[in-house]
Amino acid sequence: MSEKVRVAITGGSGRMGRTLIEAARQQPIIYLGAVIERAGSTLIGVDAGELAGVGSMNVPITDSLDLAVDDFDVLIDFTSPEASLIHTDWCARHGKAIVIGTTGFNHSQKELISAYAEKIPVVMAPNMAVGVNLLWKLLEIAAEVMGDYSDIEIIEAHHRHKKDAPSGTALKMGEVIAETLGRDLDKCAVYGREGITGERDRETIGFSTIRAGDIVGEHTAMFADIGERIEITHKASSRMTFANGAMRAASWLVDQDSGLYDMQQVLGLK
Ligand code: NAD
Description:
By secondary structure, this protein is an alpha/beta fold.
């Protein structure tokens, strides 16, 4: 593909938004057509490049997707579940593809996104780091070999500002393991501050969450038996890994038909 992929970024002043702007500048195949931030932000009208500390890109931040309608083909959205639904609805009405990195959707919100994906191409992935998408494969192998007789615990750590818990990635890890073992993820346990009372139920998958400082994102799946345990860990040390994954998803999505895709498909892993 020789032509640049024209993208827009919503939530441009957020932690991921700023990183996405920088990633867009670094990728020769990407053209950043627009940056959108919610109405009322003091950043409206500033230059996106200045915001991300990467010098002038002459892309102003606006509060309206309508103003940017002719400037991009793929929207990259790392905002909030409510905002992402509004943005996906807008994309479905205007025939734009969308890459959704936002996490924390409930079941009915996910169903709405599936419905929009009948009209437009959508990539949705709770974690766009390439390494995490290899992690799903490693988890399947560990679950097949050790899952039936070990206790399974998922531990995740993120920065103090993260809103949802357990993280979308931790839940997806649980889903992959539960599916491999034919178990029901709804019977998992979320320990949180209450901890565990009584003996551990061997059938459940436990989730523990840490929120501290500026941790970018760490996830471990532990398969523990008496006498040995396996721990599979992914650590993200820079948000750039998620942003580069999102750029890869955008340049892949531009050639796809309507449908709901994940990063495994973007990376050719399934
Ligand atoms: P953040 O709070 O720093 O940024 C969110 C941004 O969205 C803010 O700038 C906010 O103003 C903006 N926003 C909210 N509503 C908006 C609207 N209606 N229109 C335009 N902008 C709007 O959060 P963050 O740390 O950047 O994370 C954002 C989301 O991305 C979270 O759900 C997080 O879990 C997720 N995330 C996903 C991945 C991944 O790989 N999929 C990686 C990191 C973070």
